[in-house]
Amino acid sequence: MMKNIRRTQSLVRLGIVLAILVLLNFVSVRLFDRIDMTRSGLFTLADASKRLMQTLDDKVTVKAYFTEDLPAPYNSHRRMLLDQLNEYRAYAKGNFQFEFIDPSGEEGEREAQQQGIAPVQVQVVKEDKFEVKRAYMGMVFLYEDRKEVIPVIQNTGTLEYEISSTVHRLTNRTRHRIGFLSGSGSPGLEELSRAQELLRKQYDLVPVDVAKGAAVPPDIGVLFVIAPTSPLPEPVKFQIDQYLMRGGKVAFLLNRVEANLQNQYGRALELNLDDMLQQYGLRINPDLVRDLQCASVTIVQQQYGFNIQSQVPFPYLPLVNTFSEGNMMVKDLQNLVMFFASSIDTVGVGTRGLRAEILARSSKQSGRQTGMFIFDPLRQYTREEFTESSIPLGAVVEGSFTSLYEGKPAPVDTTPGATPPPAAPATRSPETRVVLLGDGDFARDQFMGGSRDNMTLFANMVDYLMDDTGLITIRTKEATLPPLEQLEDGTKKMIKYANLALPPLLVLGYGALRWRMRKARKKALEVQ
After folding, report:
1. Are the C-beta atoms of residues 328 and 473 closer than 8 Å to each other?
2. What's residue 30's pLDDT?
3. Distance of alpha carbon 29 from alpha carbon 515, whole angstroms
4. Residue 449 has what pLDDT?
5. What is d(CA 70, CA 137) in angstroms, rounded to the nearest whole number?
6. Of residues 219, 178, 183, the one with CA closest to residue 195
7. Distance from C-alpha of 360 to C-alpha of 20, rounded to nearest angstrom
8. CA distance 514 to 353
9. Exposed e or buried b for every residue in 92-130, given b needs 16+ CB within 10 A?
10. How far is 472 from 165, CA to CA, in rounded Å?
11. How many C-beta atoms surround the C-beta of residue 251 within 10 A?
């Protein structure tokens, strides 16, 4: 009798466990969540990606051409892509579908290549030998009659940005134009090739020439004024001002001091922009910021008849990691390398009814150089030269701006054939934005080096000024190592000696404790 009862109880328990497992499986298919311990939510879809999926008005189909049985680390790429696509599908309410296709065989490879997916070469170990294998790791996105292709997935850290930006581009039929002011020594677009490569999928980048009284085209969403080396003529300033008065957004990326490291010399530039910036609540100072937290330069020295290359920290290349935590342009950046940057100020913002926010600052151990600018990478600096803290290096001002030319006659371009200025120029702008950065070179190809955050800031600046802040939160999610905090010399010595002395002391302390315990136990036995 008891045996039958126990058997019945066991069967009931087993049935309950199975029912719970089936229920959990049913619920997990429809409701899911994950715990993401990364600082930037690297393994969780950003809110912008979720909103993008929820606003799809027609079906997006993804064909992932992925060769099966790839070796590490490429096999993990496939798993991560599958997880990512499943999350997108869960938020799309049926408007996001995908399939994985193994392009094996001649026909499969032909289909992948016709779709724009090119093969890549990967190394595999087979029978204790290295072999080269052709592999496909790309995606095709289809929406209505349009198609976008990601030829190869190289970095899973930027996978969400690649997918979301592709879907955004595919479903958005309007392309905005980003203008770059030409003339006055400003670099051409050929010196911003990396910026073009990153931004041209979303925007059209075009030069803007306002010579001969030409206005900034009305379809320009953002106007960049980058690193002019000679004074801007008044008619050019007038066209920039009127563009802002019409609601345009302007970014001034300026070099106030022209520095040449090879010649070890610098000189202050006269750009004829001080009155304009002051009218907009901003100022760039004729100085150079030096910072103990800095990047290094490569120098060549002769020793014993040989040329020896060495890396030397150079304080005039500040390594910036103090950013505004509330601004989308910079809040998730880690390391921004600036090149001979000048300090900036937000002057008179309150009296003009504007709002200012400092975007980037120097470290707690920084200073400024004014007057003569002479550089020596091998110079030994003293602590007294780094007594300032958190010097502003970039800012954004928002609000309704007043024209620099309010109550003044509009400047006339006297060049033959120039268009005369309007009879009644605008004097007040709608709500708009102006950005000022005390470095005009941080996004140029020859200065950028391997700094990913420099390029990210430039792209974020474009999105922010275009009011397209959703992609910013996704772009900055790639895992990066945070910079080490700079410590005082005394703190470094204390940590060093503590690391040397503490482990032996802990071992000795543990040994003494064990000895005392054994001695006490032995004495207790003798008493018994």
Report:
1. yes
2. 53
3. 58
4. 63
5. 10
6. 178
7. 53
8. 72
9. beebbebeebebeeeeebeebeebebebbebeeeeeeee
10. 10
11. 23
Nearest to 68 by CA among 79, 60, 84, 57: 79
Q: Which residue has the tokens 């605008």?
A: 426
The whole-angstrom separation of Cα 315 and Cα 516 is 55
- Local structure of residue 423 (DSSP, 8 states): S
What per-residue string of b and e applies to 488-503 under the rule 16 or more CB within 10 Å gives b? eeeeeeeeeeeeeeee
* DSSP result, 82-145: HHHHHHHHHHTTT-EEEEEE---HHHHHHHHHHTT---EEEEEEETTEEEEEEE-EEEEEEETT
Q: Tokens representing 164?
A: 């979301």
pTM of the model: 0.74
pLDDT score, position 377: 86
Tokens of 423: 């009879």
CA quadruple 492, 496, 502, 503: dihedral, nearest 10: 140
pLDDT digits (tens, 9 = 90+) for 383-424: 899 999 999 999 999 999 999 999 999 999 888 888 888 878
What HEC string does 269-280 produce? CCCCCHHHHHHC
> Across the chain, which distance is largest between two alpha carbons, in Å?
117
Residue 137: name the closest of 179, 88, 100 by CA: 100
Question: Closest by alpha carbon to 70, among 112, 15, 3, 124?
Answer: 124
Task: State residue 450's pLDDT score.
Answer: 60
Interatomic CA distance for residues 273 and 233, integer angstroms: 10
Sign of CA dihedral 82, 86, 88, 89: positive
DSSP three-state, residue 517: helix
Write the DSSP symbol of residue 520.
H
Say if CB 114 and CB 105 are below 8 A apart. no
The pLDDT score that the predictor gives to residue 479 is 45
Residue written as tokens 């798993």? Answer: 79
Handedness of CA 465, 471, 474, 475 (dihedral sign): negative
* Positions of the chain with pLDDT lower than 70, given as ranges: 1-6, 26-43, 124-130, 304-305, 449-450, 468-471, 473, 475-489, 492, 527-528
> 112: which residues sit within 8 A by CB, 6+ positions away?
65, 101, 103, 119, 136, 138
Q: Which residues contact 455 (CB under 8 A, 6 or more apart)?
A: 194, 195, 198, 443, 448
Q: Are the CB atoms for 373 and 259 separated by under 8 Å? A: yes
Q: Is-contact 156 175, C-beta < 8 A?
A: no
AA letter at 53: M
- Encode 280-334 in three state secondary structure: CCCEECCCEEEECCEEEEEEEEEECCEEEEEEEEEEEEEEECEECCCCCCCCCCC
Cα angle value 225/239/459 (rounded, 5°): 30
